Amino acid sequence: MEKQALRSKYKKLRQNLSEDSIEAMSLQIANQALKLPIWEKTYYHIFLPISEKKEVNTEYLMHILQGKDKSIVVSKADFSTGEMQHFLLQENTFLKTSEYGIPEPVSGIEISPDMIEVVFVPLLAYDVKGNRVGYGKGFYDRFLKKCNPKSLFIGLSFFEPEPEIIFNTNDVALNFCVSPQNILNFKNNPLSL
């Protein structure tokens, strides 16, 4: 299916979700993520959800990471360059909502993408091979290409996969995707579930 059609479809599906169902499914996603073989790593990048776009609430995953004493990294997007800066999330990190509705760190300790071992990736849709559709600006594809080749990319979705997404060569595929009911393992990852 074409990306633009998928964006429209999944934006509508998300808009029909109630706040209660978003919270319940976000908690289920965090509980599913506990089954992933990723918890021995140190640096985890997490997206802070845009509430008006009804994204997965990553607060539950953040509690897991904090409970395991992991280093959490969050981003700040620069729409003039299409790039993101990544900062260590600390107790004193001040977050401000950007004009695009994205909660972002104002400043802090910058972390290089090649230090990040696990990235929880936002998406609108994904397919059974791990191809994803985002909002179309390419921020995450550019970021993921700068990560260490051994980094793991984990999509979070309220929905199950599409059979196929027509993707281009700039797209970076996921290693896993976590939904409220399932964990999909793409690329025959050597890590066992």
Keywords, separated by commas or semicolons:
193 residues; Rossmann fold; 7-stranded mixed sheet; 11 strands; 22% strand; globular; nucleotide-binding
What does this structure look like?
This protein has a 7-stranded mixed sheet with strand order 3-2-1-6-9-10-11, with helices on both faces. Strands 4-5 form a two-stranded antiparallel sheet. It has a two-stranded antiparallel sheet with strand order 7-8. It has 4 helices and 11 strands, in the order H-H-E-H-E-E-E-E-E-E-E-H-E-E-E. The protein is 23% helix and 22% strand. Strand 10 (176-178) and strand 11 (183-185) form a beta hairpin. The protein has helices at 3-15, 19-33, 59-67, 139-146; strands at residues 43-45, 71-78, 83-88, 95-97, 103-105, 118-121, 125-126, 132-133, 152-156, 176-178, 183-185. The radius of gyration is 16 Å and the shape is globular. It has one domain (3-137, 149-174): Rossmann fold, CATH 3.40.50. The relative contact order is 0.20. By secondary structure, the protein is an alpha/beta fold. The mean pLDDT is 93.
Quick take:
With 193 residues, the protein is of the alpha/beta class. It has helices at 3-15, 19-33, 59-67, 139-146; strands at residues 43-45, 71-78, 83-88, 95-97, 103-105, 118-121, 125-126, 132-133, 152-156, 176-178, 183-185. The protein has four helices and eleven strands; from the N terminus they run ααβαβββββββαβββ.
